[in-house]
Write a structure and sequence with these properties.
Layout lengths: L2 H17 L4 E2 H8 L3 H15 L4 E4 L6 E4 L15 H9 L2
Length: 95
Amino acid sequence: MTQIASIDTKKNAILALLNRPEGATIAAMQDATGWQKHSVRGFLSGHVRKKLGMALHSEAAEEGRVYHIVANGGAKRGAREAPSARSALRQSTNR
């Protein structure tokens, strides 16, 4: 298996864990991927929330914080959409 295929498989493993009714802890995601805690948290923030646009919910539990993908996938109230590349360029040249 190539390294890229291995990474995609690990991403899919985390998404499958997050889609379970019981959700997943950081430790469970570490076990599934072999990643360190900071890598799992970075994946949740950068890939799941930002790149895929999925909404995550977390709650404290006995075994640690449990993460779930929210079914409606809606963003938090009051959250702004990221500016398009064109509007970001326009804003940067106006300064």
